[in-house]
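Incident log, structure service

09:12 report received: a user says their structure output differs between two submissions of the same chain.
09:20 pulled the input from the user's history:
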Amino acid sequence: MKLFLKSFLTLFFAITTIFFALRLTPGDPVERLLGPEAKVEEIQKYRAELGLDKGLVEQYVDFAKGIITLDLGKSFFKKDPVVKLIKDNLPPTVILALVSILISTPIGIGIGVISAIKKSQLPDTAIRVVTLTLLSFPIFSLAPLLVLVFSIKLGIFPVSQWTSIKHMIIPVTTLVLPLSSVIVRVMRNKYLEEESQLWVLVLNAKGLSNSAIVYRLVKICMPTILNVVAIQLSVVLAGTVITETIFDIPGLGSLLFEAINNRDYPLVQGIIAYSTVIYMLVYVLVDYLNEKIDPRIG
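09:34 re-ran on a clean worker, output below:
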């Protein structure tokens, strides 16, 4: 019940914030649709057709009803139902985010453990420097850099589109590098924290092998890592907006970027609502997995 209430409040806060933020920021979608030469009468007529002549509260009530009935309206610019546009553009984003997380997580855990085991030695120092450097690069800087090196200079990978596995490599790498760096640093710190606990000394005294102790330490760290991955999902979803736009990937991120530029209220609201629901489902899954994982066994 508590989780359901938390999820409901999260969704309510997200859709309410984006609803009012869109309408309180400068820019009129009707003027963008009709152009600067449009007459006042045309603008007023079109605003009425789109329901923008209503008060904010009335518009919000209509929007909330649409969320409940899963009718998110039609895109101002594309004229298609928002639900259809989201379904058509969702697969590339899911693939991009899922592949990035599936690659980043084991890499981050493995390198994080190595860094912890080799604490204050050369491998640890090198890993910490590299991860800190990668984290200092925002995605909008990292993506063009990877394109410059691997597409333009070396000509190994294509620059854009989404038609083969080869086209996925640079976009996925753009998300994997910072995400795995976060996991590395969290894993290292958590591992060292647990390693200093009394139970580890007891296991050492009993003569348990190093590999068995490492396994138990990693198992104990897993709930923390799962929570970090869940938190980082929001960063990954935000990163897909930049990544898909740069690499011309027909996903939800590039669709959101286009919708924001066009002041396409229904489309922006629908994408944010869908993204929030996905985020909440991931949190529910993480809570379930954390309940199943009992790191103190054995």
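09:41 both user submissions now match this output. Likely a transient worker issue. Closing.
09:42 reviewer note: The mean pLDDT is 87. DSSP finds twelve helices and no strands in the chain.
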